[in-house]
Amino acid sequence: MTAKTELSSWPDFSAEDFPLLEQSKLGHLGSRTWVKSPGGGQSPYSPRDTGHYAHSGSMDLSLEKLMSVSKLADSGVRIEMDLDAVQADQGEGGNRKQKRRRVAANARERRRMHGLNKAFDTLRSVIPSNNNKLSKYDTLQMAQIYIQELSELLIGVVKPEGRGGSRSGCTSPLGSFSPEPRECGGVFFPSSHFID
DNA sequence: TAGGCCATCTGGTCCT
DNA sequence: AGGACCAGATGGCCTA
Known about the structure:
It holds the Pfam family HLH. This protein is an alpha+beta fold. It contains six helices and six strands. The chain is elongated.
C-alpha cells in the first residue's frame, strides 16, 4: 500500500488549514553572504559559527568579480562568496572547468542542505517539546507521533477515557519529552512518548 | 576522552 | 550538460 492510498481517506483541507504552507513562502533564506575565513571553525560556510565569517560588504572588488551568484526562487538573489571558486578559476588548463563544476556542485549541495535544515527547524517549531532542541532523528520521530495523534483525534478514533487504549502502555506525545526511542505498537517512538 | 550530532565535501546516479 | 538527490567520509563542537 502506498502512502497515497493510505492518505486518500483524509478529508479535504483548504490552504488556510496549513499555516506552515504560508510560513514556507516567506523569504526565510534571505540574502546572506558568507565569506570563508582562514582557520575557520568546523563548518566554513555555516551561519551557526558566525564568528568566523565576514560580510561581503567589506569585500575587495576584485574578489567581487569572482563571486558566484545563484538565484533562489521567491527569495531574491543570494550571493555567495566562495574562495574555492577563486582557486578553481586560477587552476591549470583542463582541470579548471572540472574544478569549477565541483565547486558549483558543492555550493548547490550546501544550499540544498540549508533548505533541508530550514525545513527541520520549521518542523521542530510545530512539534510540542520541552526547551531542548530535538535532533533531526528525534524530530522525525516526534513528527510521526504527533501526526498520528492528531489524525486519530481528527477521525474520532481516540476516545476521551480510552486514550492509548489501542496502544497499550503508550501515552500521548503531548506530555513531557526526551530522546531515546522505543518501540510501541509497531512504531518507533522516542522514550519521551512513554510515562514510566 | 568517547560518543553523539552536525556541516561540508565528494563521487555516483538519475532526471530534465 | 547541468542540476537534484543520495550516501559515505571527514572533521569540528558539545556534553556526560
